[in-house]
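Suppose a classmate hands you a notebook page containing two proteins, each written out with its sequence and a corresponding row of structure tokens. How would you begin to make sense of it? This section walks through that situation. The first entry is reproduced here exactly as it would appear on such a page.
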Amino acid sequence: MSGYPLIADHGLIGDLQTSALVSTDGTIDWFCSPRFDSPSIFGSLLDRERGGHFSARPRVDAFDVRQLYFPDTAILVTRFLTEAGVGELVDFMPTTSGGPHESHRLVRLVRCVRGAIEFDIEISPRFDYGRAPHRLTLTDDGAIFDAGTTALTMSLIRDPGDERLARAEQTEHGDVRATIPLVQGQVRGVVLETGTGATPHAVGTADARRMFDDTARFWQDWISQSGYTGRWREELHRSAITLKLMTYAPTGGLVAAPTAGLPEQIGGERNWDYRYTWVRDASFSVSTLIRLGFRDEAVAFGVWLRDRVDEQQDSPTGPLNIMYRIDGDPHLSEEVVEGWEGYRGSAPVRVGNGAAGQLQLDIYGEALDAIYHADLAGIEIGQQGWLAICRMLDWLVDNWDQPEEGIWETRGGRKDFTYGRLMCWVAFDRAIRLAARLGRPAAVERWTAERDAIYEQIMERGWNSERRAFVQQYGEPILDASLLKMVQVGFIAPHDPLWQDTMAAIRSDLVSDSLVYRYDPAASPDGLRGSEGTFSLCTFLYVDALARAGRLDEARLTFEQMLTYANHLGLFAEEIAPTGEQLGNFPQAFTHLALIDAAMALDERLDDAARRPRPSSAPSR
């Protein structure tokens, strides 16, 4: 279906409470406000006719495009090269501080770099996924799009004496179109502000420059905290900034992705809303951020996780939910946006997430592992926090040995997933270590007995002697890439023959040109129609496993090959199609976390290998 950009043809901007996607043709086609999980204002990425957009592009038909980030920032620069001149579109969102804000600013600067250029601007908001109509009021200094309960204010960027925004007009749908002619050195633009009560006002170019400088300084100061100096510094720093962009600053919650409904298969039904905080994904971020040097972010999420553990609301799926809204609200419901065709015809478009009520036992291991690494980094566990951990472990003692939906949130019924058991083993193991380290009272003997029972069960039932591998679920010879974490979490040694055989089986069945499928839906029906691409997260887990097994040349080649599948800005969606096209929600936090972990594991082992003395050759006679 034509009319949609590739998922990879986007950059991400944001202000730490919400974000926007900007395509390489200068269109903002996804923007929700005031939060990541709020209804969309611009959503043409999921329905080109009904979704709404904000486009800014040269008036000519033929032009070349280059897109980059201003160095070490989240400021996106899109350059247009035409026969008459070169223009730039600079997009950013000034960062917010303090608590949640209803008002958020989105700044779009247009500049002529060489020659002359005309920009066509079109602002077409569609509030509440296109369900809420709006009324337009034009003024000399901008416009107000009023949707009743919320509004969007457009203020022009210009200096006194400048001609007004040229040839602006109101369309029949209550949108704004305009043309901005520029010659070399001229800068104009627009500031959009969400919320209610704002009045359009002229923004001077000096004020716009100050907003740019302040935003650039924020990001450059933040990334300067990184302690990483290894081989892939640019890639890791871009991943770190991307993760920061997906963090809701008022609570420290990390969204799995800032988008909803982007398909895992074009035309398929595997289209989910990822604008929430998964305990699993965000837990993995703690040790990653600590290793990179971003302690404040690790502390913020540690507090978010501690609050969820402290709350422990009664639920049939245990003391922790698998996901929460970014403010910690556990109540999520899934609905379909009626009438939206979906990205390239991939319907339905779902908002909310029906998997929120699933039982996924692995989250307890990920949560305890995060708490354990936070404690090692000096993030203290108070008495109330420790009591909450003990209550959580008491529940797990009685509930780990049961079927569940599993890490991949399958909708085909509960099963005995090996990965869920593995991470329950991690939960007990880390709790035992914490009790010893902190000298806290705990049911250590009971926890130890359960940990050992899980170990024995996985070795007996999770190992498939016919397949010569650890398998996805008990009693079935199906492989699963999530088990690549077995070495990383310390369950098995990297040179154990059982693990070597498992790696060989995964390479044979799940690896394609360095890319790794998470499992085979045909062999393990998950309750959904269609297929999917390779899972980017799993490819980086494979790199990590190769590095830990000492297969450094293979690990490095696989890593470098995987980097070629990133988009032009170094961003990854959830999956890679057989054609190399990026699929699924974009960008995905889990993938960028795994990229960082894989690079650091590989770096460490390459450095160790370089420091080892090489065997000297025998002297010649």
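The notebook's second entry, a different protein, reads as follows.
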Amino acid sequence: MKNWITIALLLFTYTFSAQTAFSPSKQITLTFFLTANGEPVYEVLYKNKSIIKTSSLGIKLKEGNDLTSGFSIDSIGNWTVNEAWKPVLGEQSTIKNHYNEMSVALSQKASERRMNIIFKVFDEGVAFRYEFPKQKNLNYFIIKDEKSEFNLTGNHKTFWIPGDYDSQEYPYMETKFSEINTDNLNLNNGIGLKTIFSKYAVQSPLMMKSEDGIYINIFEAAVVNYPVMQLDVIPSQYKLTSHLVPNAIGDKAYLQTPCVSPWRTIMVSDDARDIVSSKMILNLNEPSKIEDTSWIKPMKYVGVWWEMHVGKATWDYAGSQNAQNVLTKDLIPSGKHGATTANTKRYIDFAAKHGFDGVLVEGWNVGWEDWFGNWKEDVFDFTTPYPDFNLDEINAYAKSKGVKMIMHHETSGSVANYERHLDRALELMKKYGYSAAKSGYVGRIIPRGEFHDGQTMVNHFNFVARRFADYKMMVNSHESSRPTGYSRTYPNYIAAEAARGNEFNGWSNGNPPMHETILPFTRLLGGPMDYTPGIFEVKMSLYDKAKKEQVHTTLAKQLALYVTMYSPLQMAADLPENYEKYLDAFQFIKDVAVDWQESKYLEAEPGDYLTVARKDKKSENWFLGAITDENARTSEIKLDFLSPNKKYKATIYQDGKSAHWEKNPINYEIKTMNVTSKSKLKLVLAAGGGTAISFVPIN
């Protein structure tokens, strides 16, 4: 809903004079000018401190003159927007969108081509994009590269993962900017497909902190019909330059005017809470294109999933790639298949008993015997179940229990195959009443030679969201390109993985305790993450005494993640029998909301800690989550976010006195007390620990 929009458009002719735009608060200054040879450049100040030194802008073309220099300014437009809008699902019921915009129209005399650069300056940062108007001398064109520079002012602390065309599933490195070097990575990290392209390249979003306490984040928004932007690094110069992911033949993007690039974003503040709570990325995306959104619902779910990761069951029915009977070609069952009718009913019963909305089942369909590592095109048909999975019986049973089934579409990276079968797969979902699907893209992409983060795959992920919307269904993508706010435009794109999730704790060297304190400053800025929290039995030796892997958190921290890691789609990821052992702690997962009226970031420091309080959209209940890294932590929290003149019952799930993520992770305490908005609470977090609290009004 728009509150007010003020437009003051001024058109003049400029040569080389600097043009300036300010944030509404006047704390951020954006300056743009042309150099003597007509090269577009910009600078960013925050509270009169230099954040981005003079940095070049421009586009390199495969054919003809590059759009990098030789420009003159035709006109400048300035205006202000101050509005509010309501997300279908979100961290808050209303999002404010307030910025000052400067539009610079450029023309290149040598090529007789035009290009506009649009700047938006928010209170929490700056965004810019390239705009290519319809014109005689630029119609169809191919981008060879993009020259967007971010010249930093110092050797900032940096949280980074390596530039990789296919995966973001790395644990974060915390180093000085000058120490960025992918040669220092431990690549024995459980990632099945890595395409690291340079020792001096990182992925965005890139989170940094200067020595004088300024937080800086480089990212992008509204990546549509364009490849993902990664960042080339010159460590000694503190310099970043956009690096677009190529396609199979080395081109970056195929475009036709009129068109635009994604937004390039620079968030900046001296308060980390401004970064982690920012809705700037969402604001830079187009409003929802779905008129009737009544069918888009938040969900809490359980599923046949974790038991495969811990080795209790398998996705495949026959157990190996050579499990077919030589004469009949029939699959010979291994006896370890997880997605059976009986096992699925067990999960449905558990979901119904404890009030969960849905049940996910992975491994239900034929094809898992040789699904990975063969670059095979015709892997799955997304409609044919294994012999021990009765679609009719299962879905009738779920319906009788008031539980929704969640479909699983693993593609094995064979996107061509998935798109051929997509409508039939969606028709099957429609027939049985599925409201949502989890998609997966493990492995090398087909069409062969494409990358997960190239233009082709970005278009595919967005297409799938649109196609699901046609059927009034929601989608949750795994192994996709990381979101950049497209869930505002298609809110049925309810969540994505696109980062190192909880699953890596089950069978690799895992996620360090600081991992979950970084993700909200990076991956989650672009949209909700299906992190799959809620693992109570954190040590994998429970399933095999020889195993040493474990989840690198306490049980209490697993509860807190339901609040600190925003998603309207949240999984209780552990096995039902494990929750039955700890029903007192499990109560928080049952109670916690997943769609919010209001969110308050109370404490934040990337890599160290995060404390968040959120108000349920449908009630007066509040929930709080606090997490820390490998260091134990104590803090005092004011409860002034609660409604005044009300009493609340606070149920506190906290680390026990001897809790430690490695030595004693399942040591927790639960206590209750009455509180008001004038109360204060002392939080005591163990190493790798957390606290989760529910606040329920007392009548």
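A careful reader of the second entry would note: The two ends are 34 Å apart (CA to CA).
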